[in-house]
């Protein structure tokens, strides 16, 4: 087999395995597999790796950089118009116009300046994008996200004052900690704010996230290999 065939075989097989594991985790939690959406995280991987996933029916993808997504996705969208692209990385306010034009869902809303820029841009482009608020559940200094303590007020600001379509919450637990308490905390904050979408769980911990109510799992390495 040539390299391209190898990539195709690998990605197709990994994707099938991940989907089976998601279904298994959902069933183990007494949940419906259809209630967990797989966001395939394709950052750093090129079209050769992404196309096999698209061919296998995967349409929801995550990217963490605006510029990289702008370069990769218009051509893929032309082939698969039903693609749903999620921004899962930090967003600078000055990149908001490009982000709104490139992505269907913004998962990394984490500060007031960005919230205001998004609201302005939605009006300007005459569009709307579902937004998730990123919560820094571990309170890590270097990590993006609203602190758990500030989240209720921030949701209120975004939803009530700015009219943003806030649908849920997203978190990335600290690397060296047991993730389950972070997932449980995210679920608790969402519940008390009437939010039903929970983006949590990556290649190493998605089963635990599903057990704790994840509606979206963001999985890269387990599908596309290491970066
Ligand atoms: C890269 C990334 C992922 C995917 O991580 P894997 O461990 O490769 O599955 C998920 N969420 C965010 C925010 C990421 O940046």
Automatic annotation (TrEMBL):
Transmembrane segments: none annotated. It holds the Pfam family Ala_racemase_N. Pyridoxal 5'-phosphate (PLP)-binding protein, which is involved in PLP homeostasis. The modification N6-(pyridoxal phosphate)lysine is found at residue 43. Coiled coil: none annotated. The keyword GTP-binding does not apply. GO terms for molecular function: pyridoxal phosphate binding. This is Pyridoxal phosphate homeostasis protein. Residues 22-226 form the Alanine racemase N-terminal domain. The keyword Flavoprotein does not apply. Belongs to the pyridoxal phosphate-binding protein YggS/PROSC family.
């Amino acid at each position: 087999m040539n390299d391209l065939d190898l990539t195709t075989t690998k990605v197709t097989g990994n994707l099938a395995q991940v989907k089976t594991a998601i279904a298994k985790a959902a069933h183990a939690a007494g949940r419906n597999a259809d209630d967990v959406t797989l966001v395939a995280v394709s950052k750093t991987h090129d079209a050769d790796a992404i196309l096999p996933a698209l061919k296998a029916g995967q349409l929801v993808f995550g990217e963490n950089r605006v510029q990289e997504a702008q370069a990769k996705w218009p051509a893929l969208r032309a082939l698969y118009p039903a693609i749903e692209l999620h921004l899962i990385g930090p967003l600078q306010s000055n990149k908001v116009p490009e982000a709104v034009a490139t992505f269907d869902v913004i998962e990394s809303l984490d500060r007031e300046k960005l919230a205001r820029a998004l609201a302005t841009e939605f009006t300007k482009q005459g569009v709307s994008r579902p937004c998730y608020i990123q919560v820094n559940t571990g309170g890590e200094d270097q990590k993006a996200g609203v602190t758990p303590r500030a989240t209720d007020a921030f949701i209120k600001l975004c939803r009530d004052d700015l009219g943003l379509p806030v649908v849920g919450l997203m978190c990335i637990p600290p690397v060296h900690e047991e993730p389950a308490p972070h997932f449980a905390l995210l679920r608790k904050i969402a519940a008390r704010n009437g939010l039903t979408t929970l983006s949590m769980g990556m290649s190493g911990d998605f089963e635990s996230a599903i057990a704790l109510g994840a509606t979206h799992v963001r999985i890269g390495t387990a599908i596309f290999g290491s970066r």
